[in-house]
Amino acid sequence: MAHEMIAATNAIVVLDVALPGIVWGWIITMNMWAKSIGTGIVFLTFFLLKKYPEKTGFIRFPAVAISIVFIHIFLFFTVIDLHQMFRFWHIFFYPHLTSAITIGAWMATGFVGLLLAMAYAIYMQKDEALYDKYLGWTVLLAIPVTLYTAGLMAESTARELWQMPTESAQMILAALLAGSATMILLGGNKFDNAVKKDLGLVLGLSAFAAFILYMSEYIFGAMKAEEVAATLAFIKGGEYTILFWIGQMMAFIIPMVLVCMSITKERYYLLKIAAVSALVGLWISKHVWLVIPQLLNMS
Amino acid sequence: MQLGFLVDLHLCMGCKGCEIACKVENEVPLSTWRLRVKYIDVGTFPETKRTFTPLRCNHCANAPCERICPVSALHYLENGIVNIDKERCIGCAGCVMACPYGAIYIDPQTQTADKCTYCAHRIASSMMPSCVVACPVEANIFGDLDNPTSNISKYIQQHQGDVQVRKPEKGTDPHHFYVGGGNVQLNPLASSRDEGHNLFNKLTHLPLGGHH
Question: ipTM for the complex?
Answer without folding.
Answer: 0.90
